[in-house]
Write a structure and sequence with these properties.
This protein is α+β, with helices and mostly antiparallel strands. The chain is built from five helices and eight strands. The strands form four sheets. A two-stranded antiparallel sheet has the order 1-8. The chain has a two-stranded antiparallel sheet with strand order 2-3. The chain has a two-stranded antiparallel ribbon with strand order 4-5. The termini are far apart. About 5% of the residues have low confidence. Bound molecules: iron/sulfur cluster (SF4) (3 copies). One iron/sulfur cluster binds next to α3.
């Protein structure tokens, strides 16, 4: 009789755990930029293109440094927040979380460029010489090279822009 209660209890705990687990929001790793610390050296862009494409070419980078207008001064760091909107909207389901970041499956991608249009922070690009959209995969190469500590990797929930 006692064994029966124990089995029922264990089954209940299992069910509750699975339910809880299923409803946990998915967590991703994103690059966070602190534009106040950025001096515009663009080493991050060089590190990114080297890590992803094996070439030193800032025009292939997935992180972009934008010089602000003279009246505001400084630089803005533009990088994917891993919010997942592009994955949600992709008609081919070609974008999915791999190693805790949204990654494009170039075999599935049909080059409709809808993802580029929908990104709320304009952090997925058409790049010269690359025939598919380029976005950050949170590899951390830019974080390591930044001499100002303006970039960091942090965990966040999917859907946080
Ligand atoms: S490496 Fe750091 S300081 Fe240099 S441009 Fe990139 S974010 Fe700014
Ligand atoms: S919509 Fe933009 S910010 Fe969101 S995951 Fe896609 S590229 Fe990143
Ligand atoms: S360009 Fe490719 S990844 Fe982007 S929405 Fe279209 S099929 Fe999806």
């Amino acid at each position: 009789m006692r064994l029966g209660y124990l089995q029922v209890s264990l089954t209940l705990i299992n069910v509750l755990f699975l339910q809880f687990h299923l409803y946990l929001p998915m967590r991703v790793v994103r690059v966070r930029g602190d534009s106040k610390l950025c001096v515009g050296c663009r080493l991050c862009m060089l590190a990114c293109s080297t890590a992803v494409f094996g070439v030193i070419n800032p025009r292939k980078s997935a992180v972009e440094i934008v010089e602000r207008r003279p009246e505001t001064e400084g630089f803005s760091i533009v990088v994917c927040s891993q919010c997942g909107l592009c994955a949600e909207k992709c008609p081919e389901k070609a974008i999915a979380v791999v190693n805790r970041a949204y990654v494009i499956d170039v075999e599935r991608c049909v080059r409709c460029w809808l993802c580029v249009e929908v990104c709320p922070v304009n952090a997925i690009w058409r790049r010269p010489g690359v025939d598919y959209p380029v976005k950050c995969i949170s590899c951390g190469a830019c974080v390591e090279i930044c001499p100002r500590g303006a970039l960091s990797l942090e965990e966040s929930e999917v859907g946080v822009a």
